[in-house]
Amino acid sequence: MAKMWAGRFQKEVDSRVNDFNSSVSFDQRMAKQDIGGSIAHAAMLGETGIIDKHEAELICAELEKILADLESGKLEIDPLAEDIHMFVEAELTKRLGSTGKRLHTARSRNDQVALDLRLYLRDEIEEIKALVGKLVQTLCALSKEHLETVMPGYTHLQRAQPITFAHHLMAYTQMFLRDLSRLNDVKKRMNFSPLGSGALAGTTYPIDRKMTARSLGMDGIMQNSLDGVSDRDYCIELAAAVSTMMVHLSRFSEEIILWCSWEFKFIELDDAYATGSSIMPQKKNPDITELIRGKAGRVFGDLTTLLTMMIGLPLAYHKDIQEDKEAIFDAVDTVKLCLSTFIPMLETMTVLKENMRAAAAKGFINATDCADYLVKKGLPFRDAYKCTGELVAACIKQGLTLETLPLEQYKSSCDLFDEDIYDAINLEACVKGRTVPGGPAPESVKAQIEAAEQELERCQR
């Protein structure tokens, strides 16, 4: 394919340079956005009289046909093309002759690719948001089913205090809602048009940048032409947002892995979302969550690539910036893949309530409630803490729990204890007593679910 920029050169470019320089293998996914941007540009050229309006209409119509042919498979992208932008322009010129050559008037590939990438990532953000929204809905639905499913809450992976499975799930729900908010923030800052920035210094043609921005559904124009073509902070910001999301998915995945183990056995994954061993017939492995845990590092690497790529680059455009696409495309593809498998895995898993309740009963996780019982009867907290700690030590020595420790032993430790201590340290009572906003009591978690559903609706507008 002849190079659009061939006029300055007297020799053919070495084939190895062509291969090294080419980006069509990965930027072809932006064909729809490239054509959409070109249609907006051509329409503006016609409206402003920069090119004949009839020719502008012919260009727009033919670009629509090219897009339709690409989507139907009638037209295949030439793998020898330098990039998707040159391929579309070459195809247009092949079909319309000299009229097609007018499309690139008052435009550079620099502002063209910057626009395409913003349009493409804007669409991808909406797809990621839809998946995160589905995940939040799934977590809220699960939480409604398990408002009274008691389980141990942990610190340092040691049983700490009684909570419910719903309370635990809603913690992740809050994280994913913040991820949604970050995606909205990225999209808000991304949705400005660089088209009209030219190579770096705009153009002498009387273009209407605001017209193209409006027609593309963008909120305005980039205010500086150098900035418009040379920065990729929106890629970095999106990669950072999805990296944070992958942290949340990785943490959740680690808990799923633990809960599936025989040491916990809090849940069991559906057969469709687990794998076996090639040698050990008893195994049922949580491969999805292990892969998500590993793929988190991959997305962090994409973010590091983008950050490193931009370090020390003087204004304006440099070919280094071509490396933005594979990194941000991979980050986006990976988080979408992880979400699309994680959600149905959660939807189909079996929650083993009895095992959760049994684990909660064995860890002295009602010890704080025992101390609070004494505080409410007038004992200073530190004295109550010491007394309860001694009781726990006695239980461990005797193979008892606070629930089975005789009242006489309670009273020998502190005469403030009475029969009602057993009501105070009942696990269900311990949970239901924590009615503070954000706590694990069923009415508190119901409020959290309602607030989360309202926030989800707001984030998805």
From the structure above, extract its key features.
461 residues, mainly alpha, two-stranded antiparallel sheet, two-stranded antiparallel ribbon, 19 helices, 4 strands
The global form is: elongated
Proportion of β residues?
Answer: under 5%
The main sheet orders its strands as 1-2
Radius of gyration: 30 Å
Binned, the helix content reads 55-70%
The largest β sheet comes out as: 2 strands, antiparallel
Task: Give the beta-strand count.
Answer: 4
Q: State the separation between the terminal residues, measured CA to CA.
A: 45 Å
Q: What string gives the helices and strands in order? A: HHHHHHEEHHHHEHHEHHHHHHH
What low-confidence regions span 5 or more consecutive residues with pLDDT below 50? none
Class from helix and strand fractions = mainly alpha
Mean pLDDT: 94
Q: Treating each run of at least 4 consecutive H or I residues as one helix, how many helices?
A: 19
Written account of the structure:
The protein is mainly alpha-helical and 461 residues long. 62% of the residues lie in helices and 4% in strands. The protein is built from 19 helices and 4 strands. It has helices at 15-21, 24-27, 31-47, 53-72, 84-96, 109-145, 165-190, 209-215, 225-230, 233-260, 287-310, 324-348, 353-361, 367-376, 381-398, 407-413, 421-424, 427-432, 442-459; strands at residues 150-155, 158-164, 267-268, 350-351. A two-stranded antiparallel ribbon has the order 1-2. It has a two-stranded antiparallel ribbon with strand order 3-4. Strand 1 (150-155) and strand 2 form a beta hairpin. The longest helix has 37 residues, at 109-145. The two termini are 45 Å apart. The mean pLDDT is 94.
